[in-house]
Amino acid sequence: MIGLEDRHTMVRHIETAQAGGARLRQACEVAGITVRTLQRWKAHDGLVVGDPRPGAERPTPAHALTIEERERILAVANEPRFADMPPARIVPMLADEGVYLASESSFGRVLRAHGQTRHRGRAKAPRQSRPPTTHVATGPRQLWCWDMTYLPAEVAGRWFYLYLILDVYSRKIAGFEVHDRDDANHAAHLVKRTALAEGIHAMATKQVLHGDNGATLKATTVLAMLHWLGVKPSYSRPRVSDDNAFVESLFRTAKYQPNPTLLLAGRR
């Protein structure tokens, strides 16, 4: 939409170019309009009143919703059974009852006009999650990662459980244990034995132990032991499979060895 002042400037430049020998069509193309647009401006007072579209009277369509119909839609959408539902569910439920008030888009427009299209219902609106915590190791005994995995036994259907703590900076296996069952007490004992062996309790800075969101690693017993040792727990982000990649990579190597415990003992 070109304003009245811009129209006068554009027509003046076109007339100047045309007086200098330029063709009208080419001058209009450079200005960004067509010859038909220029002719319409001159023939219908387009250079006097400007564009009449902003102030044009637009009659209400004959099929538009009346005030009573809008109030009815708003009342139905705020009924207790529909208070937490979007229009995509309200309209089909009313249709099952043999009632038709308006389409889904009409429901949406009415609710939007009354500020009810954001979060409807008693549940709290979702909040923006905080950025993930990042830990950087610049030396040994600063950042550990740990996990638990299954080791196959010679009996079908039986497994051994490998608990392992790895130093992220040096890739040293700080501690590991193999048990015949999964128990949070085993994980707590491994953390305690490894922390005391590595002298974590005498360090001034707080050690970080990163793991996944498994139930064993987040058990109350393990958290109490970490608090007693002064170790800060850290956990992987939801649905991010490579947050604990160093331990997972070592687990894959260990499972392809005939005797995984010998490999783990050699990495210590």
TrEMBL record:
The lineage of its organism: Bacteria, Pseudomonadati, Pseudomonadota, Betaproteobacteria, Burkholderiales. This is Transposase IstA. One of its GO terms (biological process) is DNA integration. Signal peptide: none annotated. Residues 136-268 form the Integrase catalytic domain. The keyword Glycoprotein does not apply. One of its GO terms (molecular function) is nucleic acid binding. The gene is istA. Residues 114-127 have a biased composition (Basic residues).
